[in-house]
Amino acid sequence: MDKNNINQWNKTNYFDSYPRDYFENKVEAGQLYIMKDKLTGKVVGAVVLLEEDKRWTNDGSKNYYIHNLVSDTEVPGVGIKIINLCEQMALDNGVDAVRLDCQASNIKLNEYYERLGYIYVSEVQEGCYIGNRREKKLGNLCC
């Protein structure tokens, strides 16, 4: 991340908040999805997709929450493919919006999510993490 000037997990104590057993629990709960290269079988990306998130207040709408999104920087386009699949799953399940948060100081990533239609909602602070909550409403999208 430092090599590619990516300011996200490397700027917080990420693995203190999300240790290995967190991911093992998400696998067992069916909430962790991986993307593999069709030719090599290599894992090129992963995401945790949740139906609830403590960083957001429950406003009565049905939402999916993207967490722990990671993609191989050597394989362009993986991140957007994963996000598109999350959005399609949300549409298929009658979900109102897809929500996520990212490091507030990561300008590149915030601009990326903005281009994908994820609108800034508010800031969130949790320990040393300061993030921007973002949301994409799906009501106007069609299959």
TrEMBL record:
Domain N-acetyltransferase: 1-139
Transferase as UniProt keyword: yes
Keywords for this protein: Transferase
Gene Ontology MF terms in the entry: acyltransferase activity, transferring groups other than amino-acyl groups
Protein name: GNAT family N-acetyltransferase
Native source organism of the sequence: Cytobacillus depressus
